[in-house]
Amino acid sequence: MKILYLECGMGAAGDMLMAALYELLEDKESFICEMNALKLGKISALPCVKSGIAGTRMRVMLDGAEETSEDLKEIKEIKDPGAAFEESHAPEHIKSEEQPEHHAADFFHIMTLLNALPLPETVRRRAEGVYRLLAEAEAAVHQMPLQQIHYHEIGERDAVMDIVGVCLLMERLSPAEVVVSPIHVGSGYVRCAHGLLPVPAPAAAKILQGVPIYSGQIHGELCTPTGAALLKYFADQFGPMPVMMVSRIGYGMGQKDFPAVNCVRAFWGEGEENNGLPFAAPPLPNGKAAELRCSLDDMTGESIGYACELLLREGALDVFTTPIQMKKDRPGVLLTCLCDAEKAGDFAALLLKHTTTFGVRENICSRYTLGRNFTPRETPFGPIRVKTGTGYGMTKHKVEYEDAAAAARQNGVSLHDVLQAAQGGEEHF
After folding, report:
1. CA-CA distances (angstroms) from residue 337 to 310, 314, 356, 364, 403?
2. Which pLDDT does position 342 carry in this prediction?
3. Sign of dihedral through CA atoms 249, 256, 74, 232?
4. What phi, psi does 90 have (nearest 5°)?
5. Does the predicted model carry a pTM greater than 0.70?
6. What is the pLDDT of residue 111?
7. Distances (CA, A) of 8 to 17, 223, 238, 345
8. Span 7-46, pLDDT tens digits
9. Distance between CA atoms of 69 and 191, rounded to whole angstroms?
């Protein structure tokens, strides 16, 4: 299976991860064209040599200027302590006179922006998941509701480009497993909207809880909140490099220069499943879902079935019914529709239109999901798709029922025979 190993001996930032993954691509030019077509800014891949090592640095230009960063070894290095508390918009992005003004964006502004971009749905959902990690970390650090969090700490369009770029590259590469080394976070202080903060910045530290990290002799912010969120979202395992046959290596260079080469190194190759790595990544929410419910006692079974089918056709994640006992001992049905939180209003309207209910209850919850892909498997009854779920140190397989049922009907055999053939003779898959 395809394995991606990310070596973060000098931490990680969004642009460094994007550059390292970019170097693994065969068709590099089309990725740059796709990113620039989003019209968020101008991105270019620059050849870069650090400490004698050749790699790529991603340059993101916003309104003709590129933002830079500033690290501080000690607080006493600031001649004017009051200047440390001037408004800025990211610990890794400090304003200068030549740089354009950026405004903080709240969580729902970012979600609206992502929904408006012409992106594949899987890429959009992954980008939303990364931003949720960032927002939840900021909310926890500042003890504020998620709705009130503003992204001073990660800018706006430049961070969106970093996150979307990494998500697009992950979609193109489609690794079966992503392994990340222990992460070097750096040391010292960083200047941000709230003043001087220790490294790692509080949001990054919150995101990296449960992840193997370490400090060292390098002074500076090596792992940014954006880099931390991307690593935690995509990592299936944290630990040393697994046994793998490496075919390509990418070097994603950072903007800063340190005594050690400032890069993320990406290894791409073949490996075996279940390498037994330590530090299995804890399950992470892959987005927010809305659970919509309504109680029904005056609809026929056919009408309820029609409503369920319609909700599924419209893109509901799941729809199911539960028998309940209602007022005055009337038997009834609890209809539950699970959908993306952003589409809750649309599905609530469908429930109100296609059922007899006068009201719909909503519960917002997190989802924990494995990464999924479909592989056709040749059988004596024709090709049957098998769904594979990977993540958190596990792999699961399941034969697609609709494919198996259709093959059983067409060949005049039992469903069991088709499932056994698709499963390679195993009892369970």
Report:
1. 11, 11, 15, 12, 25
2. 87
3. negative
4. -175, 140
5. no
6. 84
7. 10, 9, 11, 42
8. 999 999 999 999 999 999 999 999 999 999 998 889 999 9
9. 9
Q: For helices 121-142 and 225-234, give the axis angle rounded to 10 degrees.
A: 120
> CA of 408: how far to CAs of 21, 312, 377, 402, 429, in Å?
43, 24, 15, 10, 18
CA-to-CA separations, 70 to 39, 58, 190, 191, 312, in angstroms, rounded: 27, 18, 7, 7, 50
Cα 284 to Cα 383: distance, rounded to the nearest angstrom? 34
Cβ burial 168-180 (10 Å sphere, 16+ → b, else e):
bbbebbebbbbbb
Task: Quote the tokens at residue 140.
Answer: 């926890």
Query: Domains plus CATH for the chain?
Result: 2-271 (no CATH), 288-366 (3.30.70.1380), 371-422 (no CATH)
Q: What angle do CA 103, 108, 114 make, to 5 degrees?
A: 85
Taking the C-alpha atoms of residue 380 and residue 376, their distance in angstroms, rounded to an integer, is 13
Q: What is the distance between the alpha carbons of residues 245 and 238, in angstroms, rounded to a whole number? A: 19
What dihedral do alpha carbons 385, 319, 286, 400 form, nearest 10°? -10
* Predicted confidence (pLDDT) per residue in 316-349, tens digit: 999 999 999 998 889 999 999 999 988 999 999 9
